[in-house]
Amino acid sequence: xxxxxxxxxxxxxxxxxxxxxxxxxxxxxxxxxxxxxxxxxxxxxxxxxxxxxxxxxxxxxxxxxxxxxxxxxxxxxxxxxxxxxxxxxxxxxxxxxxxxxxxxxxxxxxxxxxxxxxxxxxxxxxxxxxxxxxxxxxxxxxxxxxxxxxxxxxxxxxxxxxxxxxxxxxxxxxxxxxxxxxxxxxxxxxxxxxxxxxxxxxxxxxxxxxxxxxxxxxxxxxxxxxxxxxxxxxxxxxxxxxxxxxxxxxxxxxxxxxxxxxxxxxxxxxxxxxxxxxxxxxxxxxxxxxxxxxxxxxxxxxxxxxxxxxx
Length: 311
Fold this sequence. Notes:
By secondary structure, this protein is mainly α. It has one domain. It has helices spanning 33-60, 69-73, 78-82, 117-140, 151-154, 171-180, 189-192, 212-215, 221-233, 240-259, 278-310; strands spanning 29-31, 90-92, 106-109, 112-115. Helix 9 runs parallel beside helix 11 (278-310). The longest helix is centred in the last third of the chain and has 33 residues, at 278-310.
């Protein structure tokens, strides 16, 4: 069994500590010092549990083909997850004298601190509008469930050298035959851009960064994994529980993504989702639908964060 990989079950939020959603405009929520410090400590403990495997591997100079993806692809270190923010319109009592006062994105209100929403918007308005456009468009589009995770197969199609130094479960010829027997329908640019030259013309469309709003759809595993990226990019506007929920979902999605890939991950303790079979396809779609349902909730919350900031 793989010891270094993170557990497949999500790490639950600390019991008894509720998330801190933004209050209505004009009525900020004031958190006493003992309350926000408890939230901060609980958040750090949850983040540490989520990132324990990665931090241990880095200390040993080791890597993991599945669990390390979120840290390398998105380039966010565990420390990013550990930093708790209350979100907009929450005042942290007696926090102006703490180290948090030196964090970017905060402003003092007497002895207290709050997220500087107006300052963040002034600095990141273009980013906020771009994130809003992608989140809103994705939420409005019809979910598609017919890709069967073939994007990973298309990344090794008819090519001897592969992105991951892991053997192919069906070998090169068997992998190529699976791609030849299916229609590729990838809608995510950041997956499509890694297709081999031979696989590119086999895809139904050629998604680009410019048409991301037009083609992104809520059934896509990578679009739902990206909610973690958007949560990080929204910085102090994102409440800590929302950030960790997005990360947890992304990590679970990546595990299914790789189990459905052409790679043989049995040495790491993963059982394959054999999408070349009828049963494998059904298992993949079931996971895809469950992820889409969870992602819809997080996407709506992130949209609320952006729309609240933009007024």
